[in-house]
């Protein structure tokens, strides 16, 4: 029996309750988690400094998750984002240290390279008709090889200028850590693009029904490539800021962001909408994950618990998203 058929057999009150849970369960869970952590650790968790520090630490994960959301909205997956971010961190550090390029130039080169990687991913998926999971995983593996070829697997540490570190460690505006500002600009820009522009309507149309979008005159391939380009550029920005935070370019520094980004995106799709991927949901999903990590750290939970938490969150997120879509279609 299909999920849709099953939900149709439920009573109206049960379906309504499940609908509320599917749409608002993540927000309720976030509020409950905040209340519990605040009660258990009133002097450490619910403080302004802790929140700002958590948000600053989470900003890079939010940026890469925001870019991934754009690829997922158009109906594709980008498994290369973590590997790409690691490569960008190595390259931007090398361009500054070894090639003595000005920091703005090096950052712009990385953003352009991120867009180029997105174009490559998009062309492989749209023109060669390769499944996006296989295509982006293959491209990501190539990027790992390029990263090791460039750095020989040795972190680039010596000679990193202080001005580069300030990209991630500085507070240029109202005492707010720079990563939060970058994250706000990225999420604000992506939200405006998707929700308030004609291209955004095309993006949502392609993700909803590519065949219908094509019949409506939308260039589906172009929109899908755009999704990959935005994902690639966000990965580039994430890798750059991570290198500035660490003070080095390390070959696998951002690899772990892949799982966090996917968990946030799918958790976000179960927030406020019936299983639809959207920018605001990804923001909320990332907050749930990072606040959970923060609470576990405050209480001294062992490292393995973070992996258990993140894996469980991903499973719950996909389940809630599937439930929301089933209820919406029934």
UniProtKB/TrEMBL annotation:
The gene is rbsC. It is a multi-pass membrane protein. It is found in: Cell membrane. This is D-ribose transporter subunit membrane component of ABC superfamily. One of its GO terms (molecular function) is transmembrane transporter activity. Signal peptide: none annotated. Coiled coil: none annotated. The chain crosses the membrane at residues 21-40, 52-74, 81-99, 105-126, 133-152, 172-194, 225-244, 256-272, 279-301, 307-328. InterPro entries: ABC_transp_permease.
């Amino acid at each position: 029996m299909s999920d849709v058929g099953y939900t149709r057999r439920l009573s109206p009150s049960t379906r309504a309750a499940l609908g509320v849970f599917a749409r608002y369960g993540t927000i309720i869970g976030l509020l409950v988690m905040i209340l519990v952590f605040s009660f258990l650790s009133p002097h450490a968790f619910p403080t302004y400094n802790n929140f700002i520090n958590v948000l600053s630490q989470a900003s890079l994960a939010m940026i890469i998750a925001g870019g991934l959301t754009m690829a997922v909205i158009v109906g594709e997956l980008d498994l290369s984002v973590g590997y790409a971010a690691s490569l960008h961190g190595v390259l931007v550090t090398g361009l500054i240290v070894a090639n003595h390029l000005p920091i703005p130039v090096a950052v712009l080169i990385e953003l352009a390279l991120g867009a180029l990687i997105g174009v490559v991913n998009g062309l492989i998926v749209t023109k060669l008709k390769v499944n996006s999971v296989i295509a982006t995983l293959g491209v990501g593996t190539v990027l790992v090889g390029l990263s090791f070829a460039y750095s020989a697997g040795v972190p680039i540490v010596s000679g990193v200028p202080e001005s580069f570190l300030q990209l991630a460690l500085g507070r240029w505006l109202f005492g707010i850590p720079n990563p939060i500002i970058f994250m706000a600009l990225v999420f604000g820009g992506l939200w405006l693009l998707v929700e308030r522009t004609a291209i955004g309507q095309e993006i949502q149309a392609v993700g909803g029904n590519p065949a219908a979008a094509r019949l409506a005159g939308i260039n589906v391939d172009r929109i899908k490539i755009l999704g990959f380009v935005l994902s690639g550029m966000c990965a580039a920005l994430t890798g750059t800021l991570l290198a500035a935070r660490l003070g080095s370019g390390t070959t696998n520094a951002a690899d772990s962001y892949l799982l966090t980004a996917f968990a946030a995106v799918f958790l976000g799709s179960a927030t406020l909408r019936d299983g639809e991927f959207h920018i605001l949901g990804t923001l909320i999903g990332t907050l749930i994950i990072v606040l959970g990590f923060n609470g576990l750290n405050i209480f001294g939970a062992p490292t393995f618990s973070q992996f258990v938490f993140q894996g469980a969150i991903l499973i719950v997120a996909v389940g809630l998203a599937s439930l929301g879509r089933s209820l919406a279609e029934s």
